[in-house]
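Input record (Table S2, row 354):
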Amino acid sequence: MKKIIAVSKGDGIGPEIVTEGVKVLDTISKYTDFEFELKDAPAGGEVWKKHGENLPDKSFQTIKNADALLFGAVGLPDLPPGTGESAVLKIRQGLDLYVNLRPIKLYNVLRDKCPLKEEYIGKGIDITFIRENTEGLYKNIGKLEKDSAENLMVYTRKGCERIINYAYKFAKRMGHRKLTSVDKANLLYASKFWRTIFHEIGEKYPEIEKEDIYIDAFCQWLIRAPYKFQTVVTDNMFGDIISDEGAFLIGSLGMAPSGNIHPGKVSMYEPIHGSAPDIAGKGIANPIGTILSIKLMLQESFNLVEIGNEIDLAVEDALKEGRTVDIKHKDLKVLTTSEMGNLIVDKLKNKLKN
Ligand code: NAI
Ligand code: MG
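Output record (magnesium ion complex):
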């Protein structure tokens, strides 16, 4: 089967990490019956410099006509804030990508890089955050005046139902016995509304245990007993914050993948980090967040769960032999971005050949 993947490399380390992701896609094309055709869809600050737009029409058309989008990172320090970055929001809104899927998994081989003590890591960390991606405080409803400023937090029934439904289905598909919902229902009407819908929909899933936790308490539990959580569903802002906290637990921001998803439609897969101007052009960025975003793409957009799992295992094997500088280990070789990518591709080739 053939699928078309739009590719937006973006700015800073974006092109470096996406190059490694493309190697993984090419490897799958070569060693399986599945084939990917890649189409360039430039976006971000560099494109803005040339064309005065961060998401030219042509790019957006390419993305809309593709089966999925692989996205690097955008943003340049010599441009006003938001100039390149708002391309991401345009894509999320333009494609109505209401699910932001952010898995946080600590590989056993990286336990030395987790900032938590062994007793807190416990049985390990493997949590999927499901963040609502289109509503709440980030919808930009509000005003900025001379002596005051306000943002309005609006949740709609449709918005809550579709993300919560997705979360239950996801938890069930993954064989998770519990779904945790994070809110602030002791204070916010929007959260009370969310919580009611969480339990209404939950009636269809008697086999799944429902857990409600306030956002402030959750931030504490996430570092005190992260092994307690499996799938966590939450609103736009809370999800933004806790998924970054989570990403820190797995060793490096460079390790964390994400999907911006509308089930059944073209969805966008990207590492959660930004364009990292401080290390751009040095060839030292960690490409694993991007490579694991491809795993998510295969799993969520193309139902290729087995190949996705092989990517995961290839990453784990590679980490036992060498690592980029952000996750370096005294006994292992320090690798460049492309050496890390090549090592993972080698491991993947062997798995796909067998
Ligand atoms: P950042 O995520 O780019 O970098 C934060 C820190 O993590 C830096 O020290 C960086 O070197 C390191 N880091 C990030 N990715 C890494 C990787 N793959 N390997 C090793 N180290 C890595 O966040 P920052 O510095 O706040 O933002 C830089 C630019 O990126 C800004 O213009 C920001 O607006 C933009 N941004 C874009 C995003 C996107 O495209 N979706 C998301 C977040 C930020
Ligand atoms: Mg964020």
